[in-house]
Amino acid sequence: MKIPNVVCSLLICMFVLNVASLSGQASTASGGGTYFVEPGIRSEFQLSKSRVQCKIGHAVLPDGTGFQMLMFSRSTDAVTIDSAAKKVVLTGTMVSIVNLRFTNGTTAQLTETVPYTAYAEDNGIPGAGTDFFSLTVEYTDTPGLDQFDLFGNPATFSGVLVSGNIEVH
Q1: Is the pLDDT of residue 81 over 60?
Q2: Gap between the Cα atoms of 145 and 139, Å rounded
Q3: What is the pLDDT of residue 57?
Q4: Minimal CA–CA distance to 139: which of 123, 131, 150, 129?
Q5: Cα 118 from Cα 73, distance rounded (Å)
Q6: What does the pLDDT look like over 113-140, one tens digit per residue?
Q7: Is 104 helix (H, G, I), strand (E, B) or coil?
Q8: Best CA proximity match to 61, nearest among 154, 153, 160, 150
């Protein structure tokens, strides 16, 4: 079976257009590392054009409560990459999970799906000490203990990288 020339021409044209859009023309953003959300509380993060993840592995709050947090995107609705300024903004929806261990031995797990805005700046190499990451989420105030009670609304977790690197091209 012979494929008609018109179909071949169309397929070749589509291939050339796709390769052209991937060969340096498209903007990219990715990275990961750590930063301090406040003194003594280190956060880890990873980001790409389609995903954001952030966690606090373990911290102790001023009242002695043990604290862990994991946040990961479920969707990325918009991505804005400014290659010239080396900045990226992602928005979407993520799951935010907080595990608490109170000084009396009881525990609580708080889980909420929230809108997010992630912002990152590629300020040079090395990224540690220069690059910046920020994650803002909107918590809902509900009856009882919730993440709104812990962080307010909106809540922003941000800082200059202690380790890692963000790359925006």
Answers
A1: yes
A2: 12
A3: 87
A4: 150
A5: 10
A6: 999 999 999 998 888 999 999 999 999 9
A7: coil
A8: 150
* Closest to 167 (Cα-Cα) out of 86, 91, 81: 86
pLDDT-based confidence at 26, cuts 50/70/90? low
Radius of gyration of the chain (CA): 21
Q: Look-up: residue for tokens 């992602």?
A: 90
* For range 81-87, the mean pLDDT: 94
- Count CB atoms within 10 A of the CB of residue 8: 11
Residue with tokens 């959300």: 37
CA neighbor of 110 nearest in space, from 76, 64, 146: 146
Q: Which residues contact 148 (CB under 8 A, 6 or more apart)?
A: 139, 140, 141, 142
| CB burial readout 89-108, b (16+ within 10 A) else e | ebbbebebebebbeeeeeee
Write down the number of H helices and E strands in the chain: 2, 9
pLDDT at 46 over 70: yes
